[in-house]
Amino acid sequence: xxxxxxxxxxxxxxxxxxxxxxxxxxxxxxxxxxxxxxxxxxxxxxxxxxxxxxxxxxxxxxxxxxxxxxxxxxxxxxxxxxxxxxxxxxxxxxxxxxxxxxxxxxxxxxxxxxxxxxxxxxxxxxxxxxxxxxxxxxxxxxxxxxxxxxxxxxxxxxxxxxxxxxxxxxxxxxxxxxxxxxxxxxxxxxxxxxxxxxxxxxxxxxxxxxxxxxxxxxxxxxxxxxxxxxxxxxxxxxxxxxxxxxxxxxxxxxxxxxxxxxxxxxxxxxxxxxxxxxxxxxxxxxxxxxxxxxxxxxxxxxxxxxxxxxxxxxxxxxxxxxxxxxxxxxxxxxxxxxxxxxxxxxxxxxxxxxxxxxxxxxxxxxxxxxxxxxxxxxxxxxxxxxxxxxxxxxxxxxxxxxxxxxxxxxxxxxxxxxxxxxxxxxxxxxxxxxxxxxxxxxxxxxxxxxxxxxxxxxxxxxxxxxxxxxxxxxxxxxxxxxxxxxxxxxxxxxxxxxxxxxxxxxxxxxxxxxxxxxxxxxxxxxxxxxxxxxxxxxxxxxxxxxxxxxxxxxxxxxxxxxxxxxxxxxxxxxxxxxxxxxxxxxxxxxxxxxxxxxxxxxxxxxxxxxxxxxxxxxxxxxxxxxxxxxxxxxxxxxxxxxxxxxxxxxxxxxxxxxxxxxxxxxxxxxxxxxxxxxxxxxxxxxxxxxxxxxxxxxxxxxxxxxxxxxxxxxxxxxxxxxxxxxxxxxxxxxxxxxxxxxxxxxxxxxxxxxxxxxxxxxxxxxxxxxxxxxxxxxxxxxxxxxxxxxxxxxxxxxxxxxxxxxxxxxxxxxxxxxxxxxxxxxxxxxxxxxxxxxxxxxxxxxxxxxxxxxxxxxxxxxxxxxxxxxxxxxxxxxxxxxxxxxxxxxxxxxxxxxxxxxxxxxxxxxxxxxxxxxxxxxxxxxxxxxxxxxxxxxxxxxxxxxxxxxxxxxxxxxxxxxxxxxxxxxxxxxxxxxxxxxxxxxxxxxxxxxxxxxxxxxxxxxxxxxxxxxxxxxxxxxxxxxxxx
Length: 1029
Prior knowledge:
Number of strands: 41
Radius of gyration: 35 Å
Largest sheet: 19 strands, mixed
């Protein structure tokens, strides 16, 4: 059943006080509306009474926009006030647009019901119930915050009325016809394109809309045409430009024909005759026009139809859609909107609209729909075509089609996508196929290095693929090719030969198995990508690669291959990625001098090769989880190696001294090498910034291999001391994180704790640690949970922290507790405690506290609550905050997943600390005299157990301290914290905050609080014992 809110009979519903505006402002406004084709509800035929009748309520609901004209006597009419209440209901429940004119009245008088407006309102309220009065107060207070036109700010009413009528027209044009209802996310696209159009400017602007075939460029362009047509006298949509070559015409006549087509459309003269190429400029140079040139694939078309801005009159807009960004740039178009792929949620919605004619998945189809959406990727065209083909089909048919989609493209999609591929040069096509078959989702520099020995100019060719929308390069340098385009590339390869062993690339698992099992590979094969996850047991011979002498890229993953004999031959590979390699070493004949990446995780290798090999091209070695690996080869000649991963090599005893020549090594990961005892010493690898040795349970010596360490993990080792001489070499570091957790360390040297670059220090479960010396001012995160012997904490006051954790530190002395409680903790903190400390002047039992307060924009808060003993859980959610009474202002949530296998129960009550700004800089501004009232802090906390059972925590008490902006004006808060230093830290960590806010819709604003309760109770109780969150 269709409700009245769904039927829009009127463009505009005006709410006004007749005697104030009917014969003046309103009559002029309605005349402008009529000239613009805007239908306005007129109430002359309705008899006004004590309350608004059903006719007016229906008229409000059946209008697209409500216009409220607030005048001095508006509040003298209970009819007007009831209209206003109903209008705001429609705004809240049906998304109706509301536009305001403040006519000879100040918005502040309306909002606060003061002055002449307020006196009139009070008279209207006489004899009314308090409920009616409060309903009107709330409506007036809210509507006065909506941006609108103020007549007092205009020199003449005529200009204001003209602008307002134009604004209404523009608002109405945003509401699109039903033609575009099925395009998910269209409004977002339109807002972004409109920001480039800058319609308020009188300059002539050309903008581009760029993206791959099938992404929705033409739909966006047509929607813009629909939206903007009433704003231009002359408009034209030129479609079907792709591939136009003027069949049957010579070059000049083709250009004349194109100009003739445009002028005939825009001037609506079908008998136009164009005799020279200056015709468009001649006809349109003094006209404000909107021209959309859709799917342009030839720069010459732009030169013919829109050569330069001087061809068109002031305020004209030319919109060009294309798959080729280079065309836009070559034509001098700088304002380009890139149509990005939809999110996963939007992609699923597109599929559902095509397949089920609804935006959500019907019962029973969720898993199938998700799989189909995944295989179609995010391309709207692909989703729409596949969805339409499955409309009305049974689940069995969906499953059948799903198996086909995995390996074959729908013909319609392929025809669209192949157009872009066919227009590429041979070298561009070659790189396209390399990416489709081997290098999707790899970094640009990685692909460039891998193909350095080819005749491909990766940099320039990749730019060509990007501008033609055949690949996408992320801002941080990753190459991404759409699934359907990858499928297209693989189909192109499949057409190279009916025999898989004679193709360039092998990617289909069944075909690869046959080629390897039957030794049918040839010199044509340059790349193999073998996903073995759906293949049963496979055995290959020692000569399986003998025929593939040109093979460069070999990738076996997600499975096992058995070999009865050692392999006799491997080609000169640049990529060797072989998970679970079955033999003890690589072939003796293998020559690794061309290797760029060696990835052999979970292998049976005991060693790679003998002797010193030429490894100048090698960038990455990953031998992780190779539990039989006993030795690393001599790497003296691997001078370009950047990463060395040895994690979980549980038979490895030492790292060879040859790593001293790896001057480009950036990352060394030897974590969980349980037998590792020896590291080279007294070497300095200048590029090495990340070292991970955690859980090397036999390691005793502190790593001394780089002066530029940024992240160092040596937790759960036998290291007992940190040599000051080693730490002294780290003074040039800009960011340092040190993890010493679960170690037997007894003290932290002053040289560590005072490092100017130290940001994070983790010493949890260091049960012998008794004191922590004075911190460097750079330290922002300290985790000392479960340091059960810790007594003294000697850091300076006023150092702002984000995490400060002392869970289960029951031996802390009073001075240490005082210092911890007086720290400015912006994220969360924890320490044992049995009552709310005196440092929090507002204290209460239970989980809520109400305090009177007059706040400012710079105000801050500190808060805490007290929890009783809780048991060890591994996942936690906490908590939300509400304002007083009617309105929920803000909510803060946090979730943490932790391991609980080592966690003891918390042994006593604990205090949890947090704090920050009351609201952030983007929050709604509030007048100074509206800041008085009460603020309600309300806390709740749940722990989520291993079986996902929720358990409420008992909050025994809470406390709050408000830090006024005035108190910080000298640079210090009430607790003495240096506010400028704190703001610097907040700027650095702004991305780590979680804020949630909502406009206060009550008539009395009681306070604005952005309270973010991120008290990681279980984290803190990991950090009370759980070792690995």
